[in-house]
């Protein structure tokens, strides 16, 4: 007991009487651990989000807006050399009537189910997936007009009619579109809305932009260099043509440069992690040196 009490008094004396050294040790431990934790959080969260914005890996290399392709045609597209992923959704390009009386362009994307997607991904951040008469709005639509769960948005159809949809969810996405706003619907519900837009379509005006309903085919290639993507795009376009699928519009995009960007950003984050680990190692050396000095005393 005397030995234990002596050691306790000695430990307390080392901490209280040598305040400068104790403060340096505590600061060293705090800074080292805090720095390593901050770098890990930045690497896992902020770094991942930054990569998804600067160099997203869910961008399709080829996109075709077509009439309804047959299942056999979609199967043939999946077997084209250099094709890695093929995803299909429906899209209605329409107008969104704002509260101030103006009209904003909006792309409504329809999905047959709500399984996770690989291309042009989105994540539900609030609410639930929509049914008939319902829509999930992208969270960035707030910059066009504030929207909240339970609100009603008015969609302008090409024949001059309107459809009211109730907002039942909000989703996060970084998908780039030409439209000002973006929404997600059930494929069946979107098909029903598109059927009411058929008929005599008037000439587009400034207040009522034209609507276009199509099946969007999204394709990701294995080799993403410009030459390879261009060659694959030409093969896909020819396949659709021979399958008598009417293509409304199409484009391709090489993401080879994004891979270099991702490597550069990942390398920088790795260097920061190594530096933080070295700081923790130096703190450990400081603690061992201090303990060795105390044992010597």
Task: Write a structural description.
This protein is an alpha+beta fold and 297 residues long. The protein has six helices and ten strands; from the N terminus they run ααβαβββββββαβαβα. The chain has helices spanning 2-17, 19-54, 71-78, 187-196, 226-242, 256-296, and strands at 62-66, 83-97, 103-111, 122-127, 134-138, 152-156, 162-173, 181-186, 212-221, 247-252. It has a six-stranded mixed barrel with strand order 2-3-8-5-7-6. β2 (83-97) and β3 form a beta hairpin. The model is unreliable at 199-211 (pLDDT under 50).
Give me the secondary-structure topology:
Layout (H helix, E strand, L loop, with lengths): L1 H16 L1 H36 L7 E5 L4 H8 L4 E15 L5 E9 L10 E6 L6 E5 L13 E5 L5 E12 L7 E6 H10 L15 E10 L4 H17 L4 E6 L3 H41 L1
Parallel strand pairs: 3-8, 5-7
Antiparallel strand pairs: 1-9, 1-10, 2-3, 2-6, 2-9, 4-7, 5-8, 6-7
Radius of gyration: 29 Å
Following the backbone from N to C, one meets helices and strands in this order, namely HHEHEEEEEEEHEHEH
Helicity level, as a percent range?
Answer: 40-55%
The CA-CA distance between the termini, in Å, is 21 Å
Q: State which percent range the strand residues make up.
A: 25-35%
- Mean of all residue-level pLDDT scores: 80
**DSSP helical segment count:** 6
Strands side by side in the biggest sheet? 2-3-8-5-7-6
Q: What form results from the Cα inertia axes?
A: elongated
Structural class: alpha+beta
**Main sheet: strands, sense, barrel:** 6 strands, mixed, barrel
Low confidence ranges: 199-211
Strands, total number: 10
């Amino acid at each position: 007991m005397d030995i234990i009490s002596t050691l306790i008094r000695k430990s307390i004396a080392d901490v209280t009487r040598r305040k400068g050294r104790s403060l340096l040790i505590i600061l060293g431990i705090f800074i080292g651990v805090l720095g390593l934790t901050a770098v890990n959080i930045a690497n896992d969260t902020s770094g991942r989000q930054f990569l998804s914005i600067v160099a997203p890996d869910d961008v399709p290399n080829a996109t075709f807006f077509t009439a309804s392709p047959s299942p056999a045609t979609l199967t043939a597209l999946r077997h084209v050399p250099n094709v890695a992923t093929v995803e299909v959704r429906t899209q209605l390009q329409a107008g969104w009537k704002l509260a101030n009386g103006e009209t904003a362009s909006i792309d409504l994307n329809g999905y047959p189910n709500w399984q996770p997607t690989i291309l042009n991904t989105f994540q539900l951040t609030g609410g639930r997936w929509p049914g008939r008469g319902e829509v999930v709005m992208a969270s960035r639509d707030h910059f066009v007009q504030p929207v909240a769960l339970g609100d009603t948005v008015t969609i302008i159809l090409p024949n001059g009619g309107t459809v009211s949809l109730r907002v039942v969810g909000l989703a996060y996405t970084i998908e780039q579109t030409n439209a000002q706003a973006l929404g997600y619907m059930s494929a069946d519900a979107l098909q029903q809305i598109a059927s009411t837009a058929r008929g005599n379509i008037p000439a587009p005006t400034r207040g009522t932009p034209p609507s276009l309903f199509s099946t969007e085919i999204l394709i990701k290639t294995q080799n993403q260099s410009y030459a390879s993507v261009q060659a694959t795009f030409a093969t896909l376009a020819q396949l659709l043509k021979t399958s008598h699928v009417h293509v409304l519009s199409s484009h391709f995009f090489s993401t080879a440069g994004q891979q270099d960007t991702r490597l550069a950003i990942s390398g920088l984050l790795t260097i920061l992690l190594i530096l933080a680990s070295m700081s923790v190692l130096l703190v450990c050396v400081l603690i061992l040196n201090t303990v060795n000095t105390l044992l010597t005393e």
